[in-house]
Write a structure and sequence with these properties.
Helix content: 25-40%
Number of domains: 2
CATH architecture of the largest domain: 2-Layer Sandwich
Largest sheet: 5 strands, mixed
Radius of gyration: 19 Å
Distance between the termini: 44 Å
Number of strands: 8
Number of helices: 10
CATH class of the largest domain: Alpha Beta
Length: 212
């Protein structure tokens, strides 16, 4: 691992997490909890296998992640963030919020997408505006495994799906779903694009963006 050679906390932090792919590895482990090597690689399209192995060893050496055997009968090693690694969550939150404007024009040609990446904008932008109402669930489908939004007690939490009998399901391209979650496009506009909505539309209006 190369060092900037500067006695500065920003530089020291970047010595550890500033290499290409490192923070995205942390992102995957934040979203997944424990994960196998193959799970992490699936979430990092384009990374070379030897580079991923190197980055995992570096993060382990720096105390940001640990590995443990998976419970039987699975014969695999699981990677998970340590307490020190999880301290990077507000850093990723800030980067995710800062990066949203770059996504306004939609994906570039060849951009990959994983539905669980919707977790960041969902939890960053949305709030439960009817905290006294019964809990509700919204299933987001943008290809691959869905993400479920759990709406309850004033909060919106995103978890990997699917879920049985959600109150409402939204299916669309990643760009359209991101526009709905961030409040940049309304449901009528989203429907004119590619949004399919099934269920109680009032639940969607209940979890309007924080700025709404």
């Amino acid at each position: 691992m190369r060092s900037y050679g500067q006695y500065c906390s920003v530089a020291k932090a970047l010595d550890v997490v500033g290499d290409r792919w490192t923070l995205l590895i942390v992102r995957e482990l934040m979203l997944r909890g424990s994960a196998r090597y193959t799970d992490i690689r699936e979430g990092l399209p384009g990374i070379a296998t030897n580079l991923l192995a190197d980055r995992l060893r570096e993060l382990e050496r720096e105390g940001l992640l640990a590995r443990r055997p998976a419970p039987p009968p699975v014969a695999a090693m699981l990677f998970e963030l340590t307490d020190r690694g999880r301290e990077l969550e507000p850093v990723l939150d800030a980067l995710g919020r800062w990066g949203v404007p770059f996504m306004a024009e939609g994906p570039c040609e060849g951009d990959e997408f994983r539905s669980r990446w919707l977790t960041w904008p969902a939890e960053a932008f949305l709030a439960d505006h009817e905290p006294g109402a019964p809990p509700a669930t919204v299933e987001l489908n943008a290809g691959g495994e869905p993400v479920v939004l759990e709406i309850s007690a004033g909060k919106v939490q995103a978890v990997p799906g699917p879920v049985d009998d959600p109150d409402v399901s939204l299916s669309a391209s990643p760009h359209t779903l991101l526009g709905v979650l961030s409040g940049q496009i309304d449901l009528a506009t989203a429907r004119s694009r590619d949004l399919e909505l099934h269920g109680d539309e009032r639940v969607i209006r209940r979890m309007q963006p924080l700025a709404a």
